[in-house]
Amino acid sequence: MASIIKANQLQDFGGNSILTSDGSGTVTVNSAQMKNTPAFEAYLSSAQSVSDATNTKAQPNTELFDTDSAYDNSSTYRFTPQVAGKYLIWGVIAAYSDGNSQLDRAQSLIYKNGSVARNVTMDMRSNPGRYIMPHVQTIQEANGSSDYFELFGFVDGTTGSQTFQASTSNLDGTRWGAYRIIGA
């Protein structure tokens, strides 16, 4: 036997609204503990020149969203969540060398508080290419007050110039993001 409960609001014992409904199927989560925030995604809007074979901070300057203004897209390019918890943090460096068969290695790195927390390397020295996009992700604890995260990249070319390639809101390129994991 099935039952139906109709309500436009679910409250806890203290009278705090946890969920609300507008009556047409749209449900809003009102409890901060039930939201995957802070969260952001940002991308690099124009190519960024980098030094060869050197860890370089990416400067994704265009935000797709930033729920809590926790990402600085204009000076430090840091994500500084002000809510303690575990975060899934991901990034991709679109490594590019300006000539065919000149790209040997590329890395995407997530830094926490100025040190490498996770990195992914793609090594093509036996068969160099021109463009590659290593993707990195990690789950990291943030203290909610001072921890910060940054996206770095490494591009090693045989000759010529190396860059982090730009992206758009929906096309591949250098980008990264993060969100708080609820229930962890």
What does this protein structure show overall?
By secondary structure, the chain is an all-beta fold. The protein starts with 8 loop residues before the first strand and ends with a strand. The protein has strands at residues 9-11, 17-21, 27-29, 39-43, 48-50, 56-57, 62-66, 85-92, 95-97, 103-112, 115-123, 131-132, 135-142, 149-157, 162-164, 175-180. It folds into two domains: 1-33, no CATH class; 35-180, Jelly Rolls. The radius of gyration is 21 Å and the shape is elongated. The strands form four sheets. Strands 7-4-16-8-13 form a five-stranded antiparallel β-sheet, with no helix packed on it. A four-stranded antiparallel β-sheet has the order 5-15-9-12, with no helix packed on it. It has a four-stranded antiparallel β-sheet with strand order 6-14-10-11, with no helix packed on it.
